[in-house]
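Structure tokens please, single chain.
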Amino acid sequence: MAEEPIEEEAQRVFDALDGAEAMADPLARARVVSRLLKDQASRNKRFMEYRRQVVLGLRAQDPPVPYRKIAAQLDISLGTVQDIERGSSRWATRPKKGDEPAAE
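Here you go.
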């Protein structure tokens, strides 16, 4: 079954994260967590781009793959698929406080 390798790989990642959480030394655990958080911040952008390319590729087919089918295949919500196609997401760059135009 095609899903098994995906689930196995995901489980290996989850097991490694669980191992980091289970570390007995709080200082060592905190160092590992710091490294994981720093690394994950940069990975999130790449991971989201991988997923975006798949969604846009499926939607570009003739005929376009329906949103619901894409959502089911990627195990994400219908709204997330639509947001990806629109180019909006919760990870979008938002203006920082102070960068907003002054109210008149």
